[in-house]
Amino acid sequence: MAGRVYETWKGSNKFLFGGRLIFGPDAWSLPFTLLLIITPVTLFSVFVATHLRHEFFSNTAGDAILVVAILFTLFVLILLFLTSARDPGIVPRNLHPPEEELCYETTASTDGRQAPTVQIPRTKEVMVYGVPVRVKYCDTCMLYRPPRCSHCSICNNCVERFDHHCPWVGQCIGVRNYRFFFMFVSSATLLCIYVFSMSALYIKFLMDNNQGTVWRAMRESPWSVVLMIYSFISLWFVGGLTGFHLYLISTNQTTYENFRYRSDNRINVYDRGCYNNFRETFCSKVKPSRNDFRAFTREEPPRNTTLATTWERPGEEEEGSLELEERRQKVEDDLDIDEDVLKLQQRSNAEEGSDPAHQRVEIDQMRVGSSERAPTIRSEVRHGNLGARTSPQEDVTSGSLVRESRSYAAAEEGR
């Protein structure tokens, strides 16, 4: 029975629930990320938010602080899930290189023939908004990467509009989850600001109620101090990341493009203005996945290889056939010569006893007559027992013997 696509997936991704969820190979970092989010919010809810309820005249306002913290945290976790557990925009890999892009080059081999070498151009140009853009060929996925696509070495996939691979979410950030990634980072930034502000507000209430110093208020609520320090440190990371991606969105860049092409000073053909760039990021429809991980795999029929192991120049095949025909004709001529020589020797041996002097005189006359004519037969005589080629002198001698045999036969008919 054929398996499903996710079971035979060649990338490094991890799948859950029968291929319904896809993660990167470093999905083990997700529990750590969840711990960094849930732990401070839990401490805030227990040691800060519950006490702040009594500091307001209205219980509704106090309860709102706790509810906002919980809902905000759930929203951040949902965005984390949408970022980490979905296809980031993986380009399906090919099973074979694209035949229409193959280039055949010939190299001379040791035997003089030319052997073919199949090569694929490393780059080709495509038009983007009327501007030629060079795209590269991916040897792993056996395809030309679409514009703004790059191969992630961690996930071992080509990802459309590849931004970066985020270890905190355990997934590549691409065209299908970049929006959720930015919302996750920016929401985490706002959550840090919220926790820091409410913790500082509780310290302020303690100072006003006890009419003490800030150090005394901090001793009364140490968890508020811990949460303020933690939120301040986290704010530098997620806040800085949010600001950096705001700049990238406004200029329609990716993290990969910004770091790779920063020193090239090349024109960004994708920049359509700040407003249109933000609209493209947040208001455009998310592309559907190009992979059906739950589909059944189909066995591909064996591919007939049409490439020859050797390549011959045009007309070389005809030359080879003519050469083969000439060799075959030479072999047949050699066999005829051997047969004529054998008959001559047998006839000479049979008649040698009856009239040896007359036979010897006729043979001498035939040799004298044949020596006056230039030899016209040039062949290679093969002896059946030895399997070796005769020398040119042996060729001439064999030709003379044939002519002697024919002259002798004519003389016999005259007699």
Explain this structure.
With 415 residues, this protein is mainly alpha-helical. It folds into 3 domains: 5-90 and 165-282; 92-144, no CATH class; 316-414, no CATH class. The protein is 51% helix and 11% strand. It has 10 helices and 11 strands. The protein has helices at residues 29-52, 59-84, 178-210, 214-220, 222-251, 255-260, 274-282, 316-352, 356-371, 392-414, and strands spanning 14-16, 21-23, 103-108, 114-119, 123-128, 131-138, 143-144, 150-152, 157-159, 164-166, 171-173. The strands form 5 sheets. The protein has a 3-stranded antiparallel sheet with strand order 5-6-7, with no helix packed on it. A two-stranded antiparallel ribbon has the order 1-2. The chain has a two-stranded antiparallel ribbon with strand order 3-4. The protein is elongated. 21% of the residues are buried.
